[in-house]
Design brief:
Layout lengths: L4 E5 L7 H8 L7 H9 L9 E3 L1 E6 L2 E6 L2 E3 L10 H9 L7 E4 L12 E2 L2 H17 L4 E4 L7 H6 L3 E11 L6 H5 L4 H15 L3 E6 L5 H19 L8 H11 L3 E8 L2 E10 L3 E9 L6 H16 L4 E6 L10 E11 L2 H27 L7
Parallel strand pairs: 6-8, 13-14
Antiparallel strand pairs: 1-3, 2-5, 3-4, 4-7, 5-6, 8-15, 9-14, 9-15, 10-11, 11-12, 12-13
Helix pairs in contact: 2-9
Length: 376
């Protein structure tokens, strides 16, 4: 660390936009535009338990490394579940919160966390992160949904690696949805066609992207999202504020696509997605009617259609959901890194991760057997 100077920033606006984005590269959900929108519209901050603490490293007066970083007072909105760790630590008399977290808030998408152009700077970021924990008596630091290429360097710098599963659809240069269906078994092909046909009899779908997206569209979409939060979790206020969607429409609309379902000229379902040159990311969705297969069509089949039309290689449909397997979404491992300051607790977490990793490794072949594709 003798060559670097580290600093904690309580706002992303303390860092030049061009510097942040140059180091970040193409990762949408750690871009300056996305993270500043979360901050400026009060999705993150002390009040929501996401105290901003972005870490920078400078060399010769120039920022050469960055890490999106938050001091967390709970484990909500992370999608890497450690509430059991917190309870165990606190039952033993420790103080788990606050903890440090490097992540894109409320966004279970693999992406850049070590924003640097060489491994020595990445190692220095990780060392600085550990030192912040130890100096300030913080229980640990966690890095969620890390890029595969950074796994080894994170592990070699004192972080334990945790595995999880998501389900992704892969585009094998299909020209249309029927091309994709041709790779599935006859029974699954018949089922998917029936599901799509039943929805098509009631609902017509519309894809709106980029500059076509209006505030009226966002009003409808946000109503759907809020209703989903109320029904699933008993809270009608989503993590993301209505103002957040306005801000990202102003700054990164070219990476947004909304899929709406309409019945009798009224919107009945909607899903917001983001996309890069090679990946479509399914995010929030909602609806105001209860129809079988409406969720599958709005979030999964329409996403596949969009990816095929736009020659996008991959669709990431978020966390959990083995029901995605029968729709052609394959299990993929995701990774997070965890530094635990207390040696005894670190050993306990290490034992837990060893068992959890074994279970995940064992279940993947079983999940692959459930995929709907023809053998061979």
């Amino acid at each position: 660390m003798t060559d670097f100077t580290s600093k904690i920033h309580n706002s992303i606006h303390e860092i030049d936009r061009s510097v942040w984005n140059t180091l970040n590269g193409e990762s949408i959900f750690t871009s300056f535009e996305y993270l500043s929108a979360l901050e400026d519209t009060k999705c993150v901050g002390v009040e929501t338990g996401w105290q901003i603490a972005h870490l920078s490293l400078s060399k010769n007066g120039q920022i050469v490394g960055l890490m999106p970083l938050y001091l967390k007072y709970h484990s909500q909105g992370e999608y890497i579940f450690d509430q059991g760790w917190a309870k165990a630590y606190e039952d033993a008399g420790g103080r788990y919160y606050p903890k440090l977290l490097s992540a894109s808030p409320f966004t279970p998408v693999v992406g850049n966390r070590l924003l640097a152009q060489d491994d020595s700077t990445k190692s220095a970021l990780l060392l600085a992160l550990r030192q912040i924990c130890q100096t300030n008596h913080i229980s640990g630091a966690h890095i969620n949904f890390i890029n595969n290429q950074d796994i080894n360097i994170i592990k070699s710098n004192g972080f334990m690696i945790r595995q999880d599963l998501q389900y992704w659809w892969l585009n094998d240069n299909f020209t249309n949805f029927d091309d994709f269906l041709a790779t599935t078994t006859a029974s699954r092909r018949k089922t998917i066609k029936r599901e799509r046909r039943e929805i098509a009899e009631r609902v017509q779908f519309q894809t709106i992207q980029g500059s076509e997206i209006t505030e009226a569209h966002l009003d409808v979409l946000y109503g759907f999202i809020s209703d989903t939060y109320e029904r699933k979790w008993g809270r009608g206020v989503p993590y993301l504020t209505r103002e957040f969607f306005t801000r990202i429409r102003e700054t990164i609309a070219d990476k947004m696509v909304i899929i709406f379902g309409k019945s009798d000229s009224e919107y009945v379902s909607g899903a917001i997605n983001f996309y890069s040159s090679d990946t479509l990311y399914g995010r929030q969705w909602g609806c105001n009617i209860d129809l079988p297969f409406l969720h599958f069509e709005t979030c999964y089949y329409q996403a596949i259609d969009f990816a095929i039309r736009n020659k996008i290689h991959k669709v990431e449909a978020g966390t959990q959901g083995e029901h995605k397997i029968s729709r052609g979404y394959r299990p993929h491992k995701t990774y997070s890194g965890h530094f635990i300051a207390n040696d005894s607790f670190k050993q306990a977490i290490g034992d837990f991760l060893l068992h959890e990793t074994t279970e995940i490794d064992a279940i993947i072949p079983e999940l692959n057997e459930k995929l709907p594709f023809k053998k061979g």
